[in-house]
């Protein structure tokens, strides 16, 4: 799986030695990239930890400057490390940017021609999975965060932006405690917003829609806190079905 992250380079780069899981040839720089990534994962992804300078990595791995620089470039590209420049500079373990990752996958799905029906079906499946896990893993702090979110939405009207209207769903994805579900649900939420006609509708229409959204969020939150799976699932299913008329 890790090897599939390495893009194919041109013949002018370095001699090709191996192939990744997709059958694409990879270079020495890509091989070192995978080795460094595996090392970071085994360490528990210690954000802020210096891995050493370019010179240090050349000595440790017995690699050329070209190979090390290529590996560092790949690590930076994936937001795995950041490079501290200047005298005594070092390659430092970073925290990957979740929003950038979601945006990147979203761009690919747009390129692949994802349709509104696909977005709607995928969102339904993911949001119901998120709902199920969030309810199972909900604690008192999570309950309070749901109450606070519903309360924060009380003043929203048709002028609200996408961030404000989607915050409830991003919170559920966070509360479910599954990083993969949180990532994929976030991607679909962003795609749904990108394909929504909400902000092109009249203000009275938007006011009515926001009022319904707030009501559904309250009902879903109450059902989750009450651990009423049938009610929570029913409200979420109705909510997502209602989005169909707003997607293009």
Automatic annotation (TrEMBL):
Designated name of the protein: FCD domain-containing protein
Sorted UniProt keywords: DNA-binding, Transcription, Transcription regulation
Gene3D superfamilies: GntR ligand-binding domain-like, Winged helix-like DNA-binding domain superfamily/Winged helix DNA-binding domain
Domain spans labelled HTH gntR-type: 26-95
Annotated organism of origin: Paraburkholderia guartelaensis
Lineage: superkingdom: Bacteria
Transmembrane segments: none
Annotated stretches, region: Disordered: 1-22
Matching InterPro entries: GntR_C (IPR011711), TF_FadR/GntR_C (IPR008920), Tscrpt_reg_HTH_GntR (IPR000524), WH-like_DNA-bd_sf (IPR036388), WH_DNA-bd_sf (IPR036390)
């Amino acid at each position: 799986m890790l090897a599939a992250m390495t893009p194919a380079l041109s013949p002018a780069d370095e001699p090709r030695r191996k192939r990744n899981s997709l059958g694409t040839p990879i270079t020495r720089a890509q091989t070192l990239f995978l080795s460094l990534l595996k090392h970071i994962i085994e360490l528990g992804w210690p954000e802020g930890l210096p891995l050493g300078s370019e010179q240090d990595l050349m000595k440790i791995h017995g690699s050329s400057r070209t190979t090390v620089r290529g590996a560092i470039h790949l690590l930076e590209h994936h937001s795995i490390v950041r490079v501290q420049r200047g005298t005594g500079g070092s390659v430092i373990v970073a925290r990957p940017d979740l929003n950038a990752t979601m945006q990147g996958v979203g761009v690919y799905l747009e390129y692949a021609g994802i349709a509104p029906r696909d977005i709607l079906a995928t969102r339904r499946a993911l949001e119901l999975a998120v709902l199920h896990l969030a309810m199972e893993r909900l604690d008192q702090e999570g309950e309070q965060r749901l109450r606070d979110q519903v309360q924060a939405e009380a003043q929203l009207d048709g002028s609200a932006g996408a961030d404000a209207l989607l915050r409830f769903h991003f919170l559920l994805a966070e509360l479910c405690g599954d990083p993969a579900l949180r990532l994929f649900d976030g991607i679909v939420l962003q795609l749904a917003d990108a394909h929504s006609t909400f902000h092109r509708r009249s203000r009275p229409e938007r006011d009515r829609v926001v009022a319904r959204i707030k009501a559904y969020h309250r009902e879903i939150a109450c059902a989750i806190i009450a651990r009423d799976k049938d009610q929570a699932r029913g409200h979420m299913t109705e909510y997502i079905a209602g989005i169909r008329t707003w997607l293009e």
